[in-house]
Known about the structure:
Blueprint: E1 4-7, E2 10-12, E3 15-17, E4 22-23, E5 27-28, E6 33-35, E7 38-40, E8 46-48, H1 56-66, E9 75-78, H2 83-86, H3 89-96, E10 100-103, H4 105-114, E11 123-125, E12 131-133, E13 138-143, E14 153-157, E15 162-166, H5 185-200, H6 204-215, E16 224-227, E17 233-234, H7 236-251, E18 257-262, H8 268-281, E19 286-291, H9 297-304, E20 309-317, E21 320-321, H10 323-335, E22 341-348, H11 354-364, E23 368-369, E24 374-377, H12 382-404
Parallel strand pairs: 8-9, 9-10, 10-11, 15-16, 18-19, 18-20, 20-22, 22-23, 22-24
Antiparallel strand pairs: 1-2, 2-7, 3-6, 4-5, 7-8, 12-13, 13-14, 14-15, 16-17, 20-21
Helix pairs in contact: 5-9, 6-7, 8-12, 9-10, 10-11
Amino acid sequence: MKPVxxxxxxxxxxxxxxxxxxxxxYSLSPRGTTYNAFLVKDEKITLFDTVKADFLNEFLCSxxxxxxxxxxxxxxxxxxxEPDHAGCLDAIVERFHPEKIYCSPMGEKALxxxxxxxxxxxxxxxxxxASISIGKRTxxxxxxxxxxxxDNMISYIPEDKIAFSSDAFGQNWASTERxxxxxxxxxxxxxxxxxxxNIVLPYSPVVLKLLDAMAGMKDLDIEMLCPDxxxxxxxxxxxxxxxxxxxxxxxxxxxxxxxxxxxxxxHSTEKMARAICDGLADEGISVRIMSVKHNHHSAVMREVLDxxxxxxxxPTHNNGxxxxxxDVLTYMKGLRPQNKIxxxxxxxxxxxxxxxxxxxxxxxMGMELIEPSVKVKNLPSHETYQACYELGKKVGAxxxxxxxx
Length: 405
């Protein structure tokens, strides 16, 4: 797409990936995504990040247009070395020979391991608190280690009150719009939460520390927040909304909601899930039932983000659990959700290890387990359905007690 001037002499020169559906190999991006890069025209023309290598030609065209037809890059700022943001870095260096390439201390290590011929590149390390002059403007650097890689940093230009925030505060959103205030707020909120749940969630303690640190920086006055994915937050109210949303997500305060995740062979476990749902609903709990055959693990995590309880069911399969249930539990463990109540249920034909295995997974994540679990041989009976219903009511009561405490 064409470059967009987002402030005087500051241009979005990124790329829109309309066809992205598999984000980073583990999370869905149903709306597509963008790879945002930004060019600042000053005495030193400075480029902040690049784009995925697939979009190199489009990227070079945007740079040329933003520069007025004669492209030039004097300084390169690398906020993040992940290939969707540094995928064109070697091409930029080869074509434009920038005077300086700025990155964080951990960024230099990542740069050397990604670009094996970078020995002679003019790399300069900028730790937190460092600043550079690019002419009328200065660029200040804030390391954001593990948000979500060790090398991430934010670059801030105080003269324009603009921050380039790397992967923080982004969303997977492909569109012709460039700003958050141009799209539906509910859909944007969902995309922001989805990105957080699947990318940022395990680093929630880091997020809270960063937000506290930013609040304490008297000279940090952000009126435009530019993430490396999705739409740009413009205006003080929009920036506050983004920061407040991240604080809310990071605190992981649960809503009056439960997620039932299951897989099934001959529908026994599915029928149990529905009976459990009835018990939860009768306690006033909002419930999402999610078959893992029909819901990707990243979609499950979006719902788990603000849920008070997670209930997981599977038949026994080869003395274990069904593969898609194991997948969801493994994925969930890596994202480290907090403050969750949990329960297990399942069915079996002859051995019956399913509930024990699920319980071990849930307890290993530090979830508060509600007992007794429910397990049935072959087909649920009326007594089984009643036990499932009672399990749902018991989990619902636990949710209500937790939220009212």
